[in-house]
Amino acid sequence: MSLYDKFVENKRLRRFVLLLFVVVVFYLLRSMMSMFLLTFTFTFLSVQLVRTVQKKFPRTKPAWVIAPVYLIIIGLLIFVIANYIPQLINQTAKMFSSLQKFYESKEVRSNPYLDVIYNYLQQINLDNQIKVAITQVVNYITSVGAVGFNIVISFLLSFFYTSQVEQMNAFGRQFLDSKYSWLFSDLFYYGKKFVNTFGVVLEAQLMIAVVNTALTTITLLFMGMPGIIALSAMVFILSLIPVAGVIISLIPLSFVAYSVGGIRYVIYIVIMIVVIHLIETYFLNPQFMSSMTHLPIFFTFVVLIVSEELLGTWGLIIGIPIFVFFLDILGVHSIGGHKPKKIRIKLKKTL
Fold first, then answer.
1. Please, what is the Cα angle at 14 between 12 and 15, to 5 degrees?
2. Where's it mainly located (predicted)?
3. Reported confidence tier of residue 338, pLDDT bands at 50, 70, 90
């Protein structure tokens, strides 16, 4: 038996080598990571929608479902860009301006408790940091063209795939009968694991973010907070970060609340965040993620810190799904929720 045949027969070794090769390829193509992830996210959600409709109406073709949905999404995007993006920019600028005025006001300097915070902020040169943050925001806005291009391409690719999902699946199955069927069967194995872990976790976190944003927006409306659109957009983006996102959103919301209604509004914001965190922990997570591993908070924060260092901003969103994917590959915990069997060691009694 040749070395190649021995390698093919050793399923564990060849799958490890293939996984390592795939990781290296994605690392080399990391500049296209946004397009890959956006395409996968759009495609996964679209296919899930098609499958849901086909369960009730089996003869429905994917194109009949996905074409109207994508047309509606495009129409909504045009409406939002034309009507609400200018408001979002204006509200964000006003929010920064009001915070800076409040920071420099006499109320802050006359309050003994706030004076301590003021002196500390003076030491860390908050004014300069705010200017740097605004400069970064402007830089992000100027790079909207590149981001928009990735979104448009990902949107089109997901539409073409979903509208012909049956043909794509049939075409992909042909590789399983090719001369290198072992290679494509292993890729299929990893692809199935990837969809069952990464896709489910990402979809669940998206639903959690929507619910968190809706609850936060309703509370902010009752409190009469300014810049609702900007604050809601910020909360939605931060809610995509598992566990930590809700806590991180407390800081800017507290600053805005204090500038509007003083310490009483800050207490309201803290109560709101605590309630939303409890709802996410005890209702949303079990409801949307009942089929996956629940990581301890310690591991969650460690994974977020490491993934942000390795992948940047995307790491905060996809770090947990990737970690769960590797847990599934290692057999630590299956996406189906089956716990690994306990290993019982029997000790023989020595006479």
1. 65
2. membrane
3. very low
Q: What is the DSSP letter of 338?
A: P
Nearest CA-CA partner of 193 in 292, 51, 308, 340:
292
Summarize pLDDT for 8-37 with one digit per residue, the tens: 888 888 999 999 999 899 888 877 887 888
Q: Where are the domains of the chain?
A: 183-337
pTM, two decimals, is 0.69
Using alpha carbons, select from 65, 11, 13, 351 the residue that is nearest to residue 181.
Answer: 11
Contact yes or no for 276/246 (Cβ under 8 A): yes
∠ CA 119-123-128, rounded to 5°? 110
Which residue shows structure tokens 């902020």?
121
What is the C-alpha to C-alpha distance for residues 85 and 254, in angstroms, rounded to an integer? 24
- Average pLDDT score over residue span 272-282: 79
User: How far apart, in whole angstroms, are the C-alpha atoms of residue 291 and residue 202?
Assistant: 13
- The Cα 61–Cα 68 span in angstroms is 12
Q: In whole angstroms, what is the distance from residue 201 CA to residue 290 CA? A: 10
pLDDT at 321: 82
Local structure of 339: helix, strand or coil: coil
Measured distance CA(138)–CA(84) in Å, rounded: 18
Provide the 3-class DSSP secondary structure of residue 292: coil
| Cα four-point dihedral sign 131, 135, 136, 138 | positive
Torsion of CA 166, 172, 177, 183, to 10 degrees: -150
Rounded to 5°, the CA angle 294-206-243 comes to 45
* Token couple for 164: 């012909």
CA pair distance 167, 162, nearest whole angstrom: 10
User: How many helical (H) and strand (E) elements, i.e. helices and strands, does the chain have?
Assistant: 18, 0
The encoded tokens of residue 48 equal 């899930």
How far is it between the farthest Cα atoms of the chain?
Answer: 85
> CB–CB of 319/304 below 8 Å?
yes
